Amino acid sequence: MSPAGYTLLNWELGPVWANAVLVSALLFGLFAGYVTHFMRRYGFTEEVIFKNSLPEGDFHDPDYPVEELRCDCGKQLSHRVNRCTHNKFLVFLAKFWEGMIKIGKFALLGVVIEVLAVQFIPTEWVSSLLEGNSILPVFALTFATIPLHLQQVTAAAMLYGFVSPEFGEGIKLARGAGIALLVGGPVTALPVMGLFIAMFKKRVLALYLTICISGTLVLALGYRALPFF
Q1: pLDDT tens profile 138-190
Q2: Helical H runs in the chain?
Q3: Number of domains composing the chain
Q4: What does pTM read for this prediction?
Q5: Can you give the residue range of the structural domain that contains 218?
Q6: Within the chain, how many helices (H) and strands (E) appear?
Q7: How far is Cα 56 from Cα 137, in angstroms, rounded to an integer?
Q8: Does any domain span residue 150?
Q9: How far apart are the C-alpha atoms of 154 and 151, rounded to whole Å?
Q10: Which residues pair with 50 in a beta bridge?
Q11: Torsion from C-alpha of 44, 148, 225, 7, nearest 10 degrees
């Protein structure tokens, strides 16, 4: 959960959903951290989980020996502007542009997914999953989002096309289905999974997926069962 993600969720789906996802993110972080801490005694320590030993050094160093892990933040526009001008206002404009591009592409991706879903998948079928108050939509959406590149901004933008009465279907998003999509989708985004496959041993990816799936189901089913909201 980032400030930008919270702001967009609040604007697109309302404060109730923004706060629900924020609380879910906090609970999910605690759950994942404690489970990982517990699993250290079963062969999940830093010394044994990597495929190859990592060389010492700073990831921000342009000469860091592992190119795949080398941070390229120094090449960002805001950093270049800061080095050249040291003008805080210009740096702010550069950061604003970077943020708009980063968020905009994921929001656009969400709109494209929503348009394709409406075009090629029966709207009633998608709406029934998003509106469904039974347990089946929670499980279906949780597992369906695993192979998708569904960032939080992307998921919110896609849902906006369904819940907005002005621009979409005007459906009422079910609590369990909404958490399954807004929380479960981003934690299993393809770039994250690719990083795990490239850097860590297979059992780390298995543990990560187990945490993601079980945590999403617990949060979605728990929010669905709340007697209020």
Answers
A1: 999 999 888 777 778 878 888 887 887 776 667 888 999 999 999 998 888 77
A2: 3-13, 15-39, 77-85, 88-120, 123-131, 135-144, 152-163, 175-182, 184-187, 190-199, 202-225
A3: 1
A4: 0.72
A5: 3-57+103-225
A6: 11, 0
A7: 46
A8: yes
A9: 5
A10: 200
A11: 100
